[in-house]
Write a structure and sequence with these properties.
With 227 residues, the chain is of the alpha/beta class. It has two domains: 115 residues, Rossmann fold, CATH 3.40.50.2300; 91 residues, Winged helix-like DNA-binding domain superfamily/Winged helix DNA-binding domain (Arc Repressor Mutant, subunit A, Orthogonal Bundle), CATH 1.10.10. The protein has eight helices and twelve strands. The strands form three sheets. A five-stranded parallel beta sheet has the order 2-1-3-4-5, sandwiched between helices. α3 links the parallel β3 and β4. The structure holds calcium ion. The site of calcium ion has 5 residues, from loops.
Length: 227
Amino acid sequence: MGSGAAAVVLVVEDDESIGSAMRDALADHGYTVEWCLDGASATERLKTSPPDIVLLDAGLPDVDGFTLCRSLREEHRDLPIVIVTARDSEIDIVVGLDAGASDYVTKPFSMNVLLARVRAHLRGADSKASDETIQVGTMRVEPVDYEVFIGDEAVPLRRREFELLLLLSREAGRVVTRERILAEVWDLHWETSTKTVDVHVLALRRKLGDAIEIATVRGVGYRLVTQ
Ligand code: CA
C-alpha cells in the first residue's frame, strides 16, 4: 500500500458462485485477489507474506470461520479480517468480534457494500496519511482531535456526525453514496438503515448552518459542496 502496488485481498470462501463473484468484483476494482476454498489452504497461504486484508467465510467445510479467525488474529495482530456470514444474529456478531474479526458483512451482501468495507479497512490500515486537517471554505475538520471549526468557532458534533462529516469532507465535491456512508461510518450491520444516514445529515446541516452545504443527490447519496 502506498507504493502503488495493488492491495492483496485474500478471499476464503468455499461457495464457488459467491467466491467467483467476489474475485471478479475485487479484480475489477484493481485489487490482487487470491482465493482459498477452505481453512487449511488459507492457513497455509498465510504462512507466507500476509495479504492486506482477508475476507473470511464463517461457514467453511473444514473449520469454523470464527475459530480460524481467532488463530489468524494471534499471528497477525493488525491484519484486517472481515467475516462474511449468513448468520447475522447479534450473538454471532459478538462471537465474531470476540474472535478478533475487524468487521462483518452478512450474506446476501451488496458487492458495493463489500467493496466499501474493503476500502475502509485498507484505509484504516494505512491511516496515517488521512490524519491531515481538511479545510473546506470556512470549515476546518481535525481528524485527530475529532473537532470541527467554522472560522474560530468549534462546532459540537456527536461521534457519528463527526465521522460522517469527515467522510464527506474527504470526498468534498464528489457524491458519496448512502451505502458507502453506512459501510464506512457505521461499522456493523446491527439495525442501521439508510434512514439513519439521512437523519444524521439533517443534524449536520442544522449544526453547520450556512457555512457548509451538504447537497442531496436524489436516490444516490450526498455531496459536500465546494465553492
Ligand atoms: Ca460457506
